[in-house]
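User: Hey, quick favor. My workstation is busy. Could you predict this chain's structure for me?
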Amino acid sequence: MNYLVNDNIKIKPEGFIKKFLLKQKNGLTGHIENALEPYISYSWNKYPENEINQMDPLWKWVPFEQTAYYLDGAISLARLLSDKNLYEKTSKIIYDVINNADDDGYLGPLFLKDEKKTNRWPFVVFARACMSLYYTNHDYKIIEALQRHYLSSKATYFKGRNIVNIETMLLVYSVSKNKQLLDLAILSYDLFQRDLNKDIDYCSHYTLASELSDNIKPFEHGVTYNEIAKLGAILYIYTNDKKYLNPTINAYKKIIKYHMLPDGLHSSNEYFHGKKASQTHETCNVSDYTWSLLYLLKACKDGKYADLIENCIYNAGIGSVLENFKALQYFSGVNQIILEKNSNHNFYRKGRDWMCYKPGHETQCCAGNVNRFFVNFVSNMYLTDNDGIYAIFYGSNTSYFTLNNQKITIKQESNYPFDDYINFSFKSKNITNFNLYLRIPSWSKHYKVYKNDIEIKTRKIKGFVKINVNSNDIIKLYIPSDIEIKTYNKTGVIVKKGAILYALGMKGHRKKLPYSAYPMYEITPDKDFNYGININEANPSFKIINNSNDPFNLDSVNAIISIDAYKINDMKIIHKNKIFSTNDAFNKNRFVLKGNFSFTPNVQTYKQNDLIKERITLYPFGACKLRIAIFPKVIK
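Assistant: No problem, here it is.
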């Protein structure tokens, strides 16, 4: 087996990881009805036909994409928490669909069945939820239903986002071993490369293998790019043919080169928009980008992809949701110092409330997709291959494996990413010998590995060290990190330590506005934010202040960085009474809006001159809902 899998691994989260998952359960994931439509009226087993008939035919699929995102995240959460009620609530929906398949095996609403159109995209998302249910209960009936759905269909999977069905075809193939699914996936991908998909479903440029392989800066819808670009890595896993893998590797190099923001996620509002401090990202892409990187990690066995995932989850991901997981942003920014109904500073829907923390938004994809990012992260803390067990992500958990017909329990204890030490202990009925691969993050330059309290020599290959252990051994990993202060995009400065980006953050004055049982919020500053940093005079210091199980809450953060900064009187919230906005995701067709608008200030270089130096405190980015994380650069 040349790739990594997470089959037959049961992960029991502990510490702050469990705490965050419980917030999901007690927040939107457990009570999605508070996001309102489509989560009240629509699901894959329930939908109002009269409303569907009145919809634009091009967009009838939208509620089914959104509710399927939610199902996938909720089922995975039920598995991780062993939550019977959430499991029954979500599994019932899937079994209702499976038990009411059309005569030919088609699953889902009949008005999406047309085999010549491009409305098979939402089924990909639903099939992921089905596979999440299969990984939870291992009911082969689910595999049989998905297999029949795909093999009895004559749908044109090579058009538009329909092509992403390759992913779920191959997930089913990984269990059933029915080669017809593999053949269908390969054929569909090859047809897709004939450029027949152009201008279908607004999502067709920069996603052919030839386009992914070049060095041209992509300008594509972020979700679409992630969903399609990853397909080559998936095909490689099942074919071992690098002609599929290499374009995917290059596709993500291009994202990092042209569009990556310092909180670990590329700009996407809705399309890629470069690396300026004012850029934001659609919250859907936290889930979609990290999900795609997981396939690259599994295909390449390269720890650098785990580094990228971790950076995105702990910064961009957690920073896009409220502390209680009862509200989220549609667009989330590295710098966001005012969040009012008129403060979205992207040209797309500029002057609207799309950056506010709300239970749901005008477009409801993110309200469903936000439920996936952390559960996918936790579900892949360990992966395996024929050679052993890979520790991918660190944090307290107890996990259960079957390896070489032996049952092994691994207990991992750590307050990582705020602790430099990770402790591993093992249990098995008989003393068992196996290989354990430990990920060494790229930012840890002086790591150490201890076996039964004795330091051992290791060799890092593609981000992992290999250790042979017995189940009565104790392993300790030490991965220290330094404070890094870097120039960002010429005019900005960022501060990182290990996986965490640090920000000048605040809870802000929070005004509750009516939405559902969960309110939306307007948030305005409650302290000064107008500071810049001179890299040569920063004098940073790091401090652990407690070991809270809620480290991404400003009331209980674990760690802070103190740093010297200069107060910039000219750095102020931007007020406008007339702006240019657009409802076109390409940022075309701009029009004038009049009103009272307030926007986060831009980042620029300032001269030190008579600026006053002060000592300020920075907090983990995810804990900061109002924040400046790209500071103006101060020079002499």
